[in-house]
Amino acid sequence: MRSRVPTPVVILFTVVCAAFGVAWAQDGAAPTVVESSTVPRTPWGDPDLQGVWDYRSITPMQRSRELGDRAFYTEEEIAELEGRAARRMDEPPDENSPANLVHAQYWTDPGRYVDESRRTSLIIDPPNGRVPPLTPEAQARQEEAGGRPRLGRRADSYVDRTLMERCITQGFPRAITPTLYNNNIEIVQTPDHVAIVHEMIHETRIVPLDGSGFSGQRAFMGESRGHWDGDTLVVETRNFNDQVSYQGSGTNLQVTELYTRIARDRIGFSMTLEDENRWTQPWTVAYSMRPTEGDLFEYACHEGNYGLRNILENARDAERSAVAASGN
């Protein structure tokens, strides 16, 4: 399958231009763009991407349909969006707010700022800023599955719940897309490997840089291989299993990530997704990463996974109530 992944040069240019755009809105000063000759480097000479990086963003993954083909927010729209996000984070909840709303608004941390690119979506290709349509075959499979209960709709057993609810995995690339909280990764490098630790559900990807081929072993997070293209780390991931899906993807999914140190306090990141069995064309997401305010914490989900227990307990209570109401 021929890949349509944008070249690192194009992505680097896009993200550098974006970094100059609105960095002032976040920390008061634009980042100092790193020249190739002064890129921070490891003792063995590779660009140094190591550290804990934050990719929170209130920019939506897909552009709102009402914005049409408009790629960038206005200053007024940015002020309104970031003002709303600040109020959400800083103001106490209304005492009359339902518990689920309080949880969604005050127990999560999606961020305060739109992405530095000022774009109206994190998707930069296709130009409409939206996930491409499913292929006719994928649409047919989706319609066929429409009459079957989706995973997570039943609660007869823990196996009826999603892998995320069971603290097993989010799968990839969901693990590196901005979400409600834990939008952090840690990068650790050696001369022949890169480790990418995802805070959400404690996922770690070990990426060989030694030119070894793909083994064909399928996994929740796929199988990754990396190489350097100049100062850009390129990570290719394939061989996904059939137990996780992202935006309708299947086992044929291929993901290509680009990591470039565009400033002393910025990594430019892009990710192209391709699955010719599911989407009518590849699509690309891009955003910037900043150093975190602290260390990466363990996501000890199983130690306090009361949610799963409560889901099953409530289901049994509902069953008993139904039996009692029927008089049987």
What would your notes on this structure say?
This protein has 328 residues and is an alpha+beta fold. The model is unreliable at 1-13 and 15-30 (pLDDT under 50). It contains six helices and ten strands. It has helices at 8-22, 24-27, 75-90, 99-106, 136-145, 306-326, and strands at 51-54, 123-125, 184-189, 193-198, 203-208, 223-229, 232-238, 254-263, 266-274, 283-291. Helix content is 23%, strand content 20%. The termini are far apart. It has a domain at 36-56 and 134-326: Calycin beta-barrel core domain (Lipocalin), CATH 2.40.128. It is globular.
What distinguishing features does this structure have?
ten-stranded antiparallel β-sheet; 6 helices; 10 strands; 20% strand; 328 residues; Lipocalin; alpha+beta
